[in-house]
Amino acid sequence: MSKHQDVKVLLVSLQQELEHYGHWQRVPPSDEALSSVEPFSVDVLTCAEWLQWVFIPKMHHLVDHDLPLPSAFSISPYVEEALKGAHGHETIVRVTKDIDALFQPSSQ
C-alpha cells in the first residue's frame, strides 16, 4: 500500500473514532474560526473541532488529489494533551500516533 493509501485509511479510522466517541459535530465552526492562524487553531477551536474541520479535510485533499504530503509532522502530543480525560482519549490518540508514524524520518 502506498503512503497516500495508508494516510487515507488512518484518516477514515480517525473520523470513525471521533464519531464513535461523540466528538464529531454536524455544524461547522464559523468561517472566522476556520481561518485561525494559530497552531491547531487553539484560539478558537477545540482539538476535536480542529481534527474534524481542519486536519482531516486538508489531509484528505492532499491524498485524494495525489498531492505531495508533508515531509514531517507530529499531532499526537497535542491531541494527547488536549483530549486528556475525554471519552475515547486513548483510542483517538492511538490513531493519531499511527498517523504521526507515517511522517517520521524512519518511515520515509
TrEMBL record:
Residues 7-102 form the YqcC-like domain. InterPro entries: UCP006257 (IPR007384), YqcC-like_dom (IPR023376), YqcC-like_sf (IPR036814). This is YqcC family protein. PANTHER family: CYTOPLASMIC PROTEIN (PTHR39586:SF1), CYTOPLASMIC PROTEIN-RELATED (PTHR39586). Gene3D superfamilies: YqcC-like. Coiled coil: none annotated. It holds the Pfam family DUF446.
